[in-house]
Specification:
It contains 3 helices and no strands. It is mostly helical.
């Protein structure tokens, strides 16, 4: 999740300037996000305290 959060700075904001994302990076971000959502919905990944 850290990769997605820090790698997509134009979508999540930052105190410093953002790095322009390439089309490939944007596509990878979408695939990673969809995978994470599926894992959480299916119960394969759960929160820890």
């Amino acid at each position: 999740m850290r990769t997605l959060w820090t790698g997509q700075t134009s979508r999540h904001g930052s105190q410093t300037g953002t790095v322009p994302e390439t089309l490939e990076a944007a596509r990878a971000g979408v695939h990673l996000a969809a995978t994470l959502v599926q894992w959480f919905i299916s119960g394969a990944v759960t929160r820890t305290s």
